Amino acid sequence: MAEHSDPLELLTGPSAGEVLAAAVSATGAELLSWQPVQVDHQTDRTTVAYRTQLSTGSAVLCATVGGSLPAGVTVVGDEELQVGVWLAGNDPLLPGMRAAMDPVAVSSLFESLGLGSGAVRLELRSYRPLRRAVVEATGLAGRLFLKVVPPGKVEALHKRHRLLAGGGVPAPRSLGWTDDGLLVLETLPGRTLRGVLRSSGELPDPSALIEMLDRLPVELVDAPRRSSWLERTEYYARSVGDVVPELAARSAELATTIVAESHVGPVVPVHSDFYEAQILVDGRGVVTGLLDVDTAGPGDRIDDLACLVGHLSVLAEVLPRHAAAIDEYGARCLATFDRHVDPRQLRLRIASVVLSLATGPHRVQEPGWRQATCDRLNLAERWVNRSDSLHDERNHHVSNA
């Protein structure tokens, strides 16, 4: 394996093939092709998931470098540089993946929970190595979802789903959990708001989204707190500089401006990741579901509102064919949200959200991810400029009063 000081280059460049081939050969198989599909670059660790074709069939392989390698991975390298490699079904920090990817084990689990018996068909819907996964299970019990999290988090997540679903929030009800970190969730009706935006369907009134957030139970204030977009702004800026070094100065300057001009609102229950892929809507535009409540807890309401508008503004650039409809709905949301929070602070927080999404194209290794990262940085800067325009307009009115 060639020497590398840059973990991103090591795990996404040509040397990644050498690493994966060495790990696969230890099992007696041969690596035929590989493609990175998920990149998680942190300060102390870089982890990448790959879509691969082996001599034994297709597989999702993962590799990580940095810090102490998790127990149970195949180690490639020497004392100077070691990379841990594993199959998705053997994630070292998500032991529930073994059962979640095994139709026999899932069928047995459903039977033990009183959900019926019989064969099930499994599909891995999302996977963040070492963090979480979602598997769709279809069988006699209908369609259910298995969420896999680190074992130490599963009971609290089960209780959070029960709390929300029992308190008037349309979150999926938890049907049970296992000690190894597997949570069984019911399926809710409707399509994601993102899907509705792509098909010109009936959209929910933005005030209905506010009302749903208002129903979040007060008990969430006592849950673990997730750091806010504002608190992570400088980290997001450094991430941009890590993947596109020529943007480092601009992103750092932008982050400095956002942090200097922002202030924090009162602590209330929040979703913490509130955007169009987490909201389900029926054919009449009625909200029917709120997904991924893992990080619901105490926070600033402006974060939830900024998260949605920020994602919509990025989505309009990602889906140019639907940009007009997405921008129109984003403008409706912004006008409604402006009546509930400080409009200037909202735009600054939207800029933080967009900055957090700037490295998304690199994370999933989209073609042209460098230009896409630059485009998103430009968009974040435009949101700051819009906040400045509001500030100048207010000062003008005050001076003429």
Automatic annotation (TrEMBL):
InterPro entries: Aminoglycoside_PTrfase, Kinase-like_dom_sf. Pfam families: APH (PF01636). Residues 135-313 form the Aminoglycoside phosphotransferase domain. This is Aminoglycoside phosphotransferase domain-containing protein. The lineage of its organism: Bacteria, Bacillati, Actinomycetota, Actinomycetes, Propionibacteriales.
